[in-house]
Amino acid sequence: MTTTDSSTTPQHPPKGKRRIGDVVFGNTAQGSGILILAILAGVAAFLIIQSFDALSANTANFLTTSEWDANTDPDEAPAFGVAALVFGTVLAAALALVIATPIAMGIALFIAYYAPRKLASLLGYIVDLLAAIPSVVYGLWGIGYLVQELTPFYQWLSDYLGWIPLFAGPISSTGRTMMSAGIVLAVMILPIITAISRDVFLQVPQGHREAALSLGATRWEMIRMAVLPFGRPGVIGGAMLGLGRALGETMAVAMILSPALVISPNLLQSGNQTIAAHIALQYPEATGHGVSALIAAGLVLFAITLVVNMGARYIVARRKEFS
């Protein structure tokens, strides 16, 4: 017969009784979550209310019209639409994503599995530093240096790939094109995608990597068979978070693109504009229904960014099930 020593038995608090610290922390976390939802709802309500006057008086189709004649007399009906702005916003963000994602994945893989420890640490700091640079600095770099350096390259694209509508000539002599804006945006979102991809690649179970290597796989084959399948949801989530940043970027795009409202897939000609840049350029001189119309454009950008970020969170959440 054995006896249990009560002195060695762990003592648990009575069932149903919670410590004060747990209660305080739980309520604080719950209140923070509710506060975020309240702020988001408040921003949405503000945009809807402030844009109602212009939308109700608008004589054009708001979603399909490209013209923007909102700064009329308050007694006159405005005519404006966001079709060209939405097109330019999506085009610039998509171009930045196409350029930045493969480069970010390459940098992340090099830091995680190829670079020596000291070099990997240094590159990690540099990537984080890129994320801390203000957007206006990227805009100054783009307008002051990049557009002049890329103009000969644009001419080469037009000469040899002009049969593709994206690169058809004649090109803009100023270099202030959608391609230039997309490259600057790609540099801006590169740190976000790289940092997330790096963290995801480093979390691949060691057993998966060792199993691939023990079967005779090379380092690249191990990455292709074990690392990339595991990290794919995280990379996609990071890319969509970068897309959300590109959609809402203002100053860098406003400094590079020429203010015009056209729908053109050509990347080497001036003319396209984004919602955020259009608001930044037009708001100081907006009067009458113009202010409300710009807020309505901001509402569209808010909806697009919200959908993109919700999609990113959904994809990142799926990674937990995969792992």
TrEMBL record:
Record-level Gene Ontology MF annotations: phosphate transmembrane transporter activity
Domain of life: Bacteria
Membrane disposition: Multi-pass membrane protein
Keywords linked to the UniProt accession: Cell membrane, Membrane, Phosphate transport, Transmembrane, Transmembrane helix, Transport
Ranges for region Disordered: 1-20
CDD domains per the UniProt record, alphabetical: TM_PBP2 (cd06261)
Localisation: Cell membrane
Entry GO CC: plasma membrane
Domain ABC transmembrane type-1 positions: 86-312
Segments crossing the lipid bilayer: 24-49, 82-115, 122-147, 153-171, 183-202, 222-243, 250-268, 288-312
Pfam families per record: BPD_transp_1
Biological processes, Gene Ontology terms: phosphate ion transport
Comp. bias intervals (Polar residues): 1-10
InterPro entries: MetI-like (IPR000515), MetI-like_sf (IPR035906), Phosphate_PstC (IPR011864), Phosphate_Transport_Permease (IPR051124)
Main location: membrane
Family (UniProt): Belongs to the binding-protein-dependent transport system permease family. CysTW subfamily.
Function recorded in the entry: Part of the binding-protein-dependent transport system for phosphate; probably responsible for the translocation of the substrate across the membrane.
PANTHER family on file: PHOSPHATE TRANSPORT SYSTEM PERMEASE PROTEIN PST, PHOSPHATE TRANSPORT SYSTEM PERMEASE PROTEIN PSTC
Name of the protein: Phosphate transport system permease protein
Species: Lipingzhangella halophila
